[in-house]
Amino acid sequence: MIRILLLVTFIFSSSECLAQKKKVVYKYKEYEKFDLGDLEIKGSIIAPGDISVKERRRKVFERDLLRKDDFDKKIIQELKFLR
Q: pLDDT digits over 57-73, tens only?
């Protein structure tokens, strides 16, 4: 009885190993393309009459490097306006 049971399990396990594997085809995601020139805007398009930017003062950073005694005033001035 045990031999028959072992024989049956061996046959089933060997048939799975010997079975032909299916060929798997991977298909990657295809991306959509958008034609931005073809887009239409519904409604009224209003162009701004005046585009203005408010002038503001430039931020001056305080550095500990400038507090040294051996720095010239000219070097300190150049470091403050360094871009």
A: 877 776 666 667 777 77
CA distances from 64 to 35, 49, 68 (A): 54, 46, 8
> Residue 71 corresponds to which tokens in the numbers above?
């720095």
Q: What number of CA atoms fall less than 13 Å from residue 55's CA on the CB side? A: 0
The pTM is what?
0.22
Which run of H or E residues covers position 11?
helix 2-18
Look-up of token digits 């298909």? 27
Q: Are 25 and 41 in contact (CB under 8 A)?
A: no
C-beta of residue 79 within 8 angstroms of C-beta of residue 65: yes
Distance of CA 17 to CAs 6, 54, 76, Å? Answer: 17, 77, 81
C-alpha to C-alpha distances, 26 to 30, 31, 47, nearest whole angstrom:
12, 16, 49
